[in-house]
Amino acid sequence: MAAAQFDRVADALELDQSIRDRCKWPKRIVTVTCPVQLDDGRVETFFGHRVQHHLSRGPTKGGLRYHPKVSIGEVAALAMWMNWKCALAGLPYGGGKGGITCDPTTMSYGEQERLTRRFTMEMIPFIGVETDVMAPDMGTNEQTMAWILDTYSTHAGYLVPGIVTGKPVGLQGTEGRTEATGRGVGFLVYRVLDRLGISSSHASAVIQGFGNVGRHAALTLAAYGVKVMGISDVKGAVWNESGIDVKALCRHVDLTGSVVGYAEAEAMDPEEMLLQECDALIPAAVERVINGENAGKLQCRVLAEAANGPTTPDADLILEERGDVFVIPDILCNAGGVIVSYFEWVQNLQRFNWSRSEVLTKLETKLQQSLERVIYTAEKRGMPFRMAATALGVEETAGAKGMRGLFP
Fold it and tell me: What is the pTM of this model?
C-alpha cells in the first residue's frame, strides 16, 4: 500500500528516476536477534527490526511496536509513511519505525523489561539523539521508553533524555504527549466539519478502536459537542443513537477491559457499525478496514484516518469516484503524536519544559497549518487529499536530497 501510494504520487510529480528511487527505498534496515531469559528459565530468541527511511532532513523518528505479526515489510511501510508525515508537518525528521515480533500480552513485566533492554543494547550503534529517536506504538508505552532511556543512558554514562519521546514526565517527558494523537484527530475533524458547514453541536461520529488514540479522539469530539454514537474495540461494538457518554464508557472500559457490556448502549456488529450514517467515521485501530467491499457503502461525510493505512488503494479509487467523502489522510490525521514528540525532543535539547497548554496550543497551530496546505494543494493541483498530502511530503524529501546532492 505504501509503495503504491508513493508510485502514484511520484508519477504525478514526474519525479526523475534517480530521485524517485532514493526517496522510495529506506536508508537503512536493521534486524537483530534478542535472546531473553523467560521467567520459567527458558531462553527464547526474539527478532527485532528498525527501519530508518531517510536521514536527509534530520534524525529518523518513529514508534516501536511489540506484536506477534511484526515484520520487516510492515515496519518499512510505516517508516515510509512516517517520512511523509514528518515532512508534511514541517518537522526536521526522516521517518523511522521499529518492532519486535512478540506477544506482550503473554509476557510478564520482567520479561518485557529484559527484552526491551536487550533490543536497546543491540540497537545502540544505530540510534542516537541526532540519528534515530524512538517513541511508543502498539504494545509499548511510556515505561518501555523509560527502559530504553535508562539502558542507553547507562551505556553513555550520563542521562540522555532525547533518545526517546513519549517517556514519563518525571524523566523529562512532555505534558500533553499521552493525548496528543487522539486530540489532534478530534481537532482536525472539528475543523473539517466547520469547513463543510456542519456545526459540531449537530454532528455525529463513529469511532472504530478505543485504545489510546480512539479514546482521546472521542473525548475531544465530545468536548466539542459532537455526538459519538458508536464505538468499537477488538471484542465488539456498542451503539446509542442519542449519543454515548464517553467519560462513562471510559470508566466502564477501565473496569472491564472492553466496551462490550456497557449498559447505556446496545451491542452492534463492528463491521455494520462502519456503515452507519454519521458525519465523521474515525478508524482508529488497524490497517485495511476500509476496503473495496465496504467503501461504496460508507455513509459518512468525513473519513478521519486515525490509524495508519486504514484505507486500501482500491477503496481510495471508490471514494475518489464518489466524491462525497472528505478524507483526512493518515499522514495528516494522526500526526499529533509525532508533532508533540518533536516538541518533547526540542524541550530535551533545550533543557526547558513547556506547560501543557503551550504544548497543545502549538499542536493545534501545526495541525491547522498542515490541513490548510493539503487543502490548498489538492484544490490547486486537482488531486485527492491523500495524494496532495503525500505529494507535499515527497516534494520536501526530494528537494532536500536534490540540494544535498549525491555523495561520490
Answer: 0.93
